[in-house]
Structure formats: C-alpha cells, structure tokens
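Re-run requested by the PI after the first attempt was lost when the workstation crashed. Everything re-entered from the original request form. Ligand of interest: iron/sulfur cluster.
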Amino acid sequence: MSSEEILKEVALEVSTCAKCKLCNGRTRAVPGEGTPTAKILFIGEGPGYHEDKQGRPFVGPAGQFLDELLASISLKRSDVFITNVVKCRPPNNRDPEQDEIAACDDYLDRQIAAIQPQVIVTLGRFSMTKFFGNERISVIHGRARKKDGYICIAMYHPAAGLHQASLKDAIRQDFKKIPLIVAEADRMAAEASTRSGNQPKPAKPAQKHEEPPQQLSLF
Ligand code: URA
Ligand code: SF4
C-alpha cells in the first residue's frame, strides 16, 4: 500500500473507532492531515472544541498560532503533516489519560511509518513523552535528537504560548531551527547513501529498538 492509502485507511478506522472512552464524547474524530510525503510531522496532544466540530487538527486559536509559526519558516500546512496523540477530544479539554494514549498509539505509529518524516516535532508534553520519556520540556525544548531512527525535536505546545509570552518567544525561536534540522537530515541521508554506495534517497527509519535518545552534534 502507498503512504497515501495507509493514511486513508487509518483515517477511516479512526472515524468509527471505539477503542477507548473518548469515542463517547466526540462529534468527529480528528485523524490528522497533510501531505503523505511530508518531511516534517507535527504531533500535538488531542482535538479541542473547534477540532472536534470540524474533524481537522489545529483549527482553533492554537492552530492560528501554528499557522503563523509555519509561515515564519515559509511553510504551509499542505507542506507538512499534523496529527495528535489522541484522535478524539477529551471532555472539557482535560489531559488525555494513559489508557487513552495507549489505545490510540497504534494509529500514530502507522501514520509515522507511512509518512517516514525526516523530522518529528512534538508539541507539548504528551507527544514529547512518546519520544523523550520523562524529560522536562523546559530543559530539552528546541534540541534535536535521534530516536527510533527519526530526528525528533520537542517544543512547547502552541496553546501554552498563547497564555505566556515567554513561551511564545521560545516556540518562535525553536521553530526557526526546523529548516536547519531538515537540511542536516538531508545531509546525513545523502552521506549514508554515499557510504553504502546507493543513490541518495530520503532518510528511512532504522529498526525500532530501545536506545537512549542521541543528542545530535550540531545543536
Ligand atoms: N491542540 C492540540 O494539541 N491539537 C489540536 O489539534 C488542537 C489543539
Ligand atoms: Fe479510538 Fe483514539 Fe478515538 Fe480512543 S481517541 S476512540 S483510541 S481514535
């Protein structure tokens, strides 16, 4: 199956999913959207009020800020892929619970495997935990690390930036690093394929295995 077909299949399953209790309160599930060939994948927390109504990720105030951040590095939504850790809205925007995140994780893994992004940007605490464990966002935000064969970078959630000016600045600064990290990922992929004597091709994820996140030398 092509990446596009896998993403469509995931979206279809998500639309009728009842694997966790969040299915009870949703208006529409929000599988995520963007290009199947995205180099950059953004992973947020879960749908809010507006997302639940429209079935699309990041369309409320946090989404407007995300659009602004994307524009600041000359990107549009259609250049990237945007999804969430849980695909259905938690009641009253409460935090997603462990069992809900676990129930939804397979959809996220299939999306990641289909897209094979060069860079994964986690937005907020819950998607950060998937790649960085129990580290503190205040310490690791904006730093690129290799994890599960992907280059990951943790950022504050855009909604946090709406409430706190200092975080807004931090997110803006962290976003500016994304093009550098993508360029570095391109360089590393080209170098790896030269070493193995193959034609340059996009970075592919390595075998999944437990490894401590590797700090990239450049940042
Ligand atoms: N916040 C999120 O984490 N995800 C959305 O889709 C919208 C707001
Ligand atoms: Fe299914 Fe995920 Fe929605 Fe839970 S949050 S019902 S696992 S799609």
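Saved to the shared folder this time. The two ends are 36 Å apart (CA to CA).
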